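User: Before I run my own analysis I want an independent prediction to cross-check against. Here's the chain; please return only the structure tokens and, at the end, one sentence I can use as a sanity check.
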Amino acid sequence: MFSELPRQTRRAAFTVAGLALFLIWDQYFWWKLSDEYAFGFIVPLFVAYVLYDRWPRISGLFVGSGGVAGLEGQKPDEKDTEKDPDSRTKLLMRFFEGVALLMVFGGFGIFFLGALYRAIEGQNLITSNLIAFGFANLLLGSVFLYGDKRSDGNRNSLRERLSLALLFLFPALIWMLSVPMFSAVHRVISTFLMNQVAVVVYHSFDLLGFAIIREGSVLKLPLGDVGVEDACSGIRSLTACLFAGSFLGAVYFEAFWKKGLLVLTAMLFAFINNIGRSLFLTSWAYSQGPEGLDAHLTLWGMDLGNIHDFTGWVVLGITVLCLLALVKLFSLRLEYPLEEPLHPS
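Assistant: Structure tokens:
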């Protein structure tokens, strides 16, 4: 099916694929360096799966003259109207083409700038974020521009071209999540989360009548002080859950409100479950002392790590299970019983 695509589209696809390989090579450094972004190793596989899953709809907008992928329910006369656009539709088409053109040239410029800066200064956060941001704009803009017509010469409507670009939304944007954010942004988010966790834990213990004092993100307990550090802020589980929510939303749902709600819920689940983890760890430190958090857990002779790290993995697993349950809930379809026909008396 790929060989049936227009020649210029295939050339553009090979170019974008080459840039994607460079992007993966660049981000591999961070995946290997930081446990927080180790999920990046599976990002290429997930992107490949999403493209494979959506390929029938993608190819349907490039090959052949019939069928409009993702536009079920549209009446034939509406399709004909879009094939013969009015002045307003033409104006919108030119506007989106202009935006897409800016995205392509701007994205390529940002990508090239990041690659050049990387060659001069070596691996750093600025270059990796520039490359990821440039690739996202380049891919989305290219898909819209090269989706103007099919292999048989028939032109796609504006709605079809936008639908095609939206099919590449996850493969384009997920790379911005699999690379570490700028240190300043990371520090702001981490500090905010640490303070919120410390406040909730302090008020919970104070409300229950336990002796506790809060000084910033440090909790003073009878057996010693416990600090809510970066690892306890929940930013690691937040990043991982954002990725999980984005992937599940891309695979299971078509409606964008469901995709967006799932991503927002993933962040909420990550925060709430991390609060539960912090309450448990503080309770443990309250009874065993802060050094008790370094005690290792063993199961059938296998070391599961210390309590602090093990509970982090537990929180991540619980959050993913919550997301899967939410996916099932969103997928439910209510069926109403048919009304019995009225019989004349």
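Sanity check: The chain has eleven helices and five strands.
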